[in-house]
Amino acid sequence: MRSLASATPPIALGALDGRYRGVVSALVDHLSEPALNRQRVHVEVEWLIHLTTVGAVPGVRALTEAEQAQLRAIPQDFDLADIEELAEIERETVHDVKAVEYYLKRRLPAIVGEQDAPALSELIHFACTSEDINNLSYALMVQGAVTGVWAPKAARLVEQVADMARELADVPLLAHTHGQPATPTTMGKEIAVLAHRLGRQLRRIEGAEYLGKINGATGTYGAHTAAVPGTDWISVSRDFVESLGLQWNPLTTQIESHDWQAELYADVARFNRVLHNLCTDFWTYISMGYFAQVRGQGTVGSSTMPHKVNPIRFENAEANLEVSNALLDVLAATLVQSRLQRDLTDSSMQRNIGTAFGHSMLALDNAGRGLAGLDAVPAAMAADLDRNWEVLGEAIQSAMRALGAAGVEGMDQPYERLKELTRGRRITGDDLREFVRGLGFPPEVQERMLALTPASYVGLAPQLVDFLER
């Protein structure tokens, strides 16, 4: 059998770079290996510019505005040729960050001139350990992926769910607690609960902190102060990290501690879990006939049963959420651990960040497409309500309790009397009305109880949808 491993162009090993590439491709600009190298180039360039601008190393001339612009164009114009050049250098250095340093030093003479290049090139990666560059690069990568790609897609889904809640705010629904018929609600209110939960988690994610450091091999500024003791390196470090749009971490070992990453991934995983809950709920509502899959469903539902339209979008979303969370959980658990001042477990672990967000993105896409293909079937919901008049037992016994508390006679043992009527059997509307007439209610209360139906017993459910943030 011919090997597929040698095919050209290369065949993707994973689904994200194969059949689902189109859905997750926007993450490539932020969380791929070339994106990491591009950010490394960006950080190294900005560190060089920063050092010369603030005069951190006496005797080194400042870069002109034109030179700064040319340097900044290097990461901005980063393309396939640069990717291959870096790979070629890394094959020699066997060190990815050192390859970035040499890559930039090759370009410096053409920008600052042959005469000044030797001196200025010594400030590329000056006093830095690899993690100084890597931690800042990853922070910028994750920040860009979350704020520019993942969060906007998540926000669109939350709004889609909220819009559905508003549209169905008044549609009565038989609730099911423990899988059993329970106090009616509305479909809109139940969907609003999910939208509210998702929105709350999304706001936590949008408020995430992205930390960074640049303080040397063990976080002491040892090389900095040994080389140039007169410079306020703490201020130089803080100002530089903040200039990148990150929050400065003043206390680290060789690595930035990654606690912010663990916090972020836990929040994204929690969002994923709420979305998983949404998928299983809608899957169940579809199976109960409360929603019909009618729009955008020109697909084959079953290979042998032509009548079927399977809720595959929600099932696909569930699977991808589970994969995403498995990765997010292990990232959060592993990244906060490091032996003494440094071990290298985080290096391999962080290369899975893109995969974790990719599967979440794929789930967002599938859930959104699944919701877009649904039409509510109020008649099916109404039919279930009409088959379950016993759910009004709660309303009647509560009215009896209120009257009994107010001193009205004949209202004793309300729970027990309703339990005897309703427990373990179906009753009709006529059965319930006959029972109400025999309770001795005051006329106005009896009239209200007789007018009550499962479909009208929804409390304040429609108004509660208004609590959704717009």
Automatic annotation (TrEMBL):
Organism superkingdom: Bacteria
- Which GO molecular function terms does the record list? N6-(1,2-dicarboxyethyl)AMP AMP-lyase (fumarate-forming) activity
- Per the record's keyword annotation, is Lyase included, yes or no? yes
Q: Does the keyword Magnesium apply?
A: no
Fumarate lyase N-terminal domain: from which residue to which, for each copy?
Answer: 18-317
Q: Where is the Adenylosuccinate lyase PurB C-terminal domain?
A: 338-458
Pfam families listed in its UniProt record: ASL_C (PF08328), Lyase_1 (PF00206)
Question: Catalytic activity annotated for this protein?
Answer: N(6)-(1,2-dicarboxyethyl)-AMP = fumarate + AMP; (2S)-2-[5-amino-1-(5-phospho-beta-D-ribosyl)imidazole-4-carboxamido]succinate = 5-amino-1-(5-phospho-beta-D-ribosyl)imidazole-4-carboxamide + fumarate
What name is this protein filed under?
A: Adenylosuccinate lyase
